[in-house]
Model the fold of this input.
Amino acid sequence: MFGYVRPSESELLVRQYRLYKALYCGLCDSIRSEVSFSLSLSLNYDFVFLAAVRAAVTGEKPEIKLRRCFVHPLRKRPHALLPDTLGYCAACSMILTYEKLRDDIRDPDVSFFKKIFLMLYRIVLSRGRKRLFKKRPELTELSGLVTKSLENISELEKAGSDDLDAFCAEFGDLMKNVASFGCEAGQARILSEIGDFTGRLIYTADACDDLKKDFERGSFNPLIARWGSADEAARHFEQLDMALALYASRIDSALALAGGDPDLVAIAENVAQRGVAKLCRRIFSRSGGADREADPTVTTQ
Done:
């Protein structure tokens, strides 16, 4: 369900693109040094967006250092240093990945051999998770909030709910808590808005992206529950496109209140304004909607 929130890289300035890649490398550093070396294997770009947004709102300034790493041992690469923000995002990566593994293991549509792999990976991560909570006990509260949201989503699925808004609201609450946890009131309000609508966007995009696969496998998908088939759901992509437009617009409006590093703000705005449009072209085309050559309605400019 993750990996959807990415910028349109070709429309970033060169320095912004370098900063974005440096954030990824810096986050990978933080995960390996502070949480778990194994967790870096499942790092995705959604957490880079979270890092850019948190730093942009809290005002933490990135420092760039050239470093070698395990993946690139021969050539030094730019790594962003944002101790507070990247340390927190590394912890969130552990919390969300660990809980998602548990959710996937419970999924009846996951194959037996894949479940074995997921269980082994979860066991590997468990030591790092325990170490994380011992070092930062306050994060147990966040973990509980994440677990509660995922359990609520699971209950909606078991009930066969066709209420996409209810699913989006639950995942929006999850991401709202992740984005704003531990921040002061003013910052938390901005981050809650961004997190809420980012979560709604991710859930809607994921439901559209998995539409054909879920229909072929007989897996639960709220769009199929609502419209009966993948083809019928695809006929309503324009309606879903409008929902994604609203979510992207609300993220963009909240980002206008961020007063931190301008390049970090620009990266986050690029995701909301252009990256989401690019994502939707790909998903709607692949899932049976019309092939959009022009930008879809999710472009907020």
The longest helix spans residues 185-209. The mean pLDDT is 89. The chain is about 70% helix and 5% strand.
